[in-house]
Amino acid sequence: MDEQALPVPFVKSVFHATDFSAASDTAFVHALAIALLRAGELTIMNTGPEHRDGPDWSRYPGVRKTLEEWNVLPPQSPAEAVFEKLGVKVNKVASGSRNTIGALAEYLDDNPTDLLVLATDTGTGLPKWLRGSVAQSVAKRSDTMTLFLPGGCAGFVSSAGDLNLKRILVAVDHQPDCRAAFVYATRIALITGEPEAEVHILHVGERPPAVPLEQSADPRVVVRQHVREGNPVESILRFARQLPADLIVTTGRTEDGIFGAAANSVTLGILSEAQCPVLAVPDERL
Predict the structure, then answer these.
(1) 3-state secondary structure of 101
(2) Residues 176 and 271 in one domain
(3) What does the pLDDT look like over 97-155, one tens digit per residue?
(4) What does the buried/exposed string (b/e) look like for 265-283 if buried means 16 or more CB atoms within 10 Å of the residue's CB?
(5) What's the pLDDT tens digit per position in 125-138?
(6) Domain with 108 in it: what CATH number?
């Protein structure tokens, strides 16, 4: 996909916070696939007191190994090939802090990124370290888009590293402003190169908000609008299963910070039971 065809690139920098779990491994391949697609920058960070005597880089997910498995790098490629041949700059960061969310927010303060990729706990909708009042207060220091990978979810990255996003569901309401979520959903549909990718706009309630459909005037993206009644979380999850959706996009308030959308009770309900990844977009992201 020619980047010039898009009003603004989807993302150029991706940040993945890992705890070295199997769920984080799934989140990692999504972060890497997106960085590879955009020839962007990928940062992988872990925190914990075990790093105070020096980080053990061998525990970090293998970027070159994964790219070799995807057949985009030949076997035994040198480290510099990731950037020289693919244009992907990789940073691995370790913090000895016990305060994971604080270390994460501090790093993002100094190194702003376009997209944060996280694995979440099954049944809770959030990573273990993203809970409580301290996490919420510190998290207000950033307005990063966040891609959540629910526990047990295979996601939309194939074994070859391709992004399979045929159906994207955008949950909309009057507040927060949903325009940014819709625009980013259409950009995602375009950059993945899926023929006739579908973006489904869903409002639960009587009067749907206005959505800037003119910003997706591209024959490669099919946009459909839907209205349902009932409990918002249940209705959105039911509709996502019926499609089935490869990605759910929600909106959060920019002033609520990096996990503003997650603080929304509807989005948190979606995160706790979603069977596909969820992208939270701040309402002033455009």
Answers:
(1) helix
(2) yes
(3) 988 878 888 898 899 899 989 888 765 555 655 554 433 433 444 567 889 888 788 89
(4) ebbbbbbbbbebbbbbbbb
(5) 556 555 544 334 33
(6) 3.40.50.620
Q: What is the DSSP string of 81-95?
A: HHHHHH--EEEEEEE
pTM: 0.87
If asked whether residues 233 and 143 sit together in one domain, one would say no
Q: Which residues contact 230 (CB under 8 A, 6 or more apart)?
A: 204
Report the DSSP beta bridge partners of residue 163.
157
Are residue 197 and residue 129 in the same domain, yes or no? no
Query: How is the beta sheet containing 13-17 ordered, strand by strand?
Result: 89-95, 41-47, 13-17, 115-120, 145-150, 278-282, 247-252, 167-172, 197-204, 221-228
284/5 Cα distance (integer angstroms): 22
Overall number of domains in the chain: 2
Give the domain extent around 35. Answer: 3-150
Other Cβ atoms less than 10 A from the Cβ of 132: the count is: 9
